[in-house]
Write a structure and sequence with these properties.
The protein has about 55 residues and is an all-beta fold. It is built from no helices and 5 strands. The chain is about 0% helix and about 40% strand.
Length: about 55
């Protein structure tokens, strides 16, 4: 489970919050999930299939 890393910027592509961009802040190895923070009040868990890497700006 090394597709993404903490601090990486990703775009959400799944059915929840599609199109939003956020930062990976935690990885749950046991559940194979990534915690993505969208803004100061919004974060959620996603699988790698629901994420797409954003190009560095």
């Amino acid at each position: 489970m090394s597709e993404f890393s903490i601090g990486q910027t990703v775009q959400l592509t799944g059915t929840t919050m599609t199109g939003n961009v956020g930062t990976i802040v935690h990885i749950d190895q046991k559940k194979d999930r990534y915690l993505v923070r969208i803004d100061a009040q919004t974060q959620n868990w996603f699988s790698a299939a629901d994420l797409q890497s954003c190009p560095e700006s």
